[in-house]
Specification:
The chain is an all-alpha fold. Helix content is about 65%, strand content about 0%. The protein has one domain. The chain has a two-stranded antiparallel sheet. Its main location: membrane. Pfam families: Steroid_dh.
């Protein structure tokens, strides 16, 4: 069977999501240490043998900024090519996160992430921008589009405020601003809302798939963070991980 280039890209797009989700589930089951980074690695004894070697494949945490340099470039290309409002939204999100990683977030000299996290980030911003490029749809209802834009703006603002709060904390202390009193990772909750708004605005199955990945990936990280807070601050840790009154 001969596949044209577009079909090959589509096959790679959908297959990559299956592989990514399967990898997270496998890591959670067999190599949970690969899902930890930063404070959640504190006090965790290193593995030995092959697993230990895998665990040591890390890069500086400040390389998170590479995701947003890359995504901003792709989003800007989409804006110039498509001149669509969706591409502008993705550009706004990517550029803001780039600014935050450069000017707001504080990465310790010894803070590191596993190389798998880094590669997954590059993959995700590739497929997210690809989804914008190939699915040039938008919700039929003007009301749905309006709700999506309002959700995008409010969640983006709240995420920025949460990142500002985190940047002012003494390292490894308990955040207390806003929803941090209820959930351990409100900035992740904001990310879910941001991608929810993009999915609603576009009514694109590909963007809904991106949203599904954001929920799975960030929920896994938020649960790790919640567990760490519960151990370190048993009396004052927030009761939920990422979604108020649900998870």
């Amino acid at each position: 069977m001969n596949l044209d280039p577009r079909s090959l890209f589509e096959l790679a797009f959908y297959s990559s999501f299956l592989l990514a989700i399967a990898s997270v589930l496998l890591a959670k089951w067999r190599v949970p240490l690969l899902l930890k980074y930063g404070k959640t690695l504190q006090g965790v004894p290193p593995e030995t043998g092959i697993l230990g070697s895998l665990q040591r494949l890390t890069v500086p945490k400040k390389w998170f900024g590479h995701f947003y340099v890359y995504s901003t470039a792709l989003a800007l290309l989409n804006v110039c090519t498509l001149r669509s409002f969706t591409s502008l939204l993705v550009l706004a999100h990517s550029a803001r996160r780039l600014y935050e990683t450069r000017c707001v977030s504080k990465f310790g000299k010894d803070s590191r992430i596993h190389i798998s996290h880094y590669l997954v980030g590059i993959w995700f911003y590739t497929v997210a921008n690809y989804a914008v490029f190939v699915d040039r749809t938008r919700a039929y209802s003007p009301l749905a589009r309006l709700v999506a834009v309002i959700m995008f703006v409010l969640s983006s603002f709240d995420q920025h405020q949460n990142h500002l709060h985190l940047s002012k904390l003494v390292k490894y202390t308990l955040p207390t601003y806003g929803l941090f009193q209820l959930i351990s990772s409100p900035h992740y909750f904001d990310e879910i809302l941001i991608y929810s708004s993009l999915a609603i605005y576009t009514s694109s199955f590909k963007m809904f798939l991106c949203l599904m990945w954001v929920i799975i990936n960030l929920s896994t990280s938020a649960l790790e963070t919640k567990g760490w807070y519960a151990k370190k601050f048993p009396q004052s840790a927030p009761p939920f991980a990422i979604i108020p009154y649900l998870l």
